[in-house]
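Handout, page 2. Input:
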Amino acid sequence: MKPFQPFSALTYRNFRLFWLGQIISLSGTWMHSAAQGWLVFKLTNSPFYLGLVGSAMTMPILLFTMAGGVAADRFFKRDIILTAQTILMFLTLALAIMVSTGIVTVWHVLVISFLIGTANSFEIPARQSFFVEIVGRENLMNAIALNSAAFHGARMVGPTIAGIIMSFFGLAACFYLNALSFLATITGLLRMRFRPDEIKTSQGSGIRKEFNEGLKYIFDDPKVYTLILSSGIISFFGFPYATFLPVYARDILKTGAAGLGILMGFAGAGAFTGAVALAVRGDFSNKGILLAASSITFSIALLIFSLSNITWLSYLTIFFIGFGAINQVATANSLLQLLVPDRLRGRVMSSFTTVFLGMTTIGNLSLGSLAHYIGTQYSLLTGASLCLIGSLLLILKRPEILKIKMRSDE
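Output:
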């Protein structure tokens, strides 16, 4: 029996280069996220615009990610990721210049957010389906968990640093540092080395036919669409909570910009803890039970957070929000990649991305509009309640989700 290695994916040079670059780049991305939320709220004093900017960044996920999935199945995934990262660097730099010169308006932020989302709609399917090619099926769960640990470790550190930088150096510094941080991932991608047989591309049979083939596969396999639906529920009703954290920091908890960084940091700490636990635990068979339990944990923690006016309780519950979210997402991600054939992986993962991130677009707009009329706390309470009800109904209607048992060597 092969000995268990909790960090087995890091033994692969290409994954190690990408992972180390992501740690730096994602820290900048989370600094950007915290600074952008504060910037929009400062410019508009409106939770509606916070939701609108969140929707602008995720709207392209709904519009273009399926095309991104086709591209991921057709072209060399490293080159897609490299191109997208370069575009993102220049978009961030443009926003930094506008903020530092004082010409920025909320409409500039909306346009740049939409363009960032467009680049992400091609980068995300390529990145998600890239891991299995550089570490293999046996180490896929470990690679996803380690990448999630990098993402949420950055989520824990980045906003906290952003809060300090905003207080002492201003908003523009956060955007400049984010632009600089993309160089880490770009450098790592350029240093990767591949054998000719590892560069997987396909001529394809026409975009429309490939779209239809991917959708037919998803709806013909109840396990696949149930996994995608489970992520869609927490995405639509639950994930918009992050958009409204500036309101909680300034008006409800009254902790200011530094408090916003701490809130986002605690959410990142919970997700980081969950990701590390997945990586250390290694591959396991009862992924369906973990998926369901994580959805319920996320929903209950969000429900308590939505009503909290107590700082320490908000920090505690947002930790469990992050913990539940990462366990749900990483488990659904790995199960999907293990279930689908190689030739369809890009399209299936683009569908997962469309539902998981794209539904946040509608959720941001819906909960933002609702917050305008009934207040942020009651709007978030409504979303958390529907998230919990939806997760429980899915388990009752689709009990097979609890019976999904799969290991990477199956």
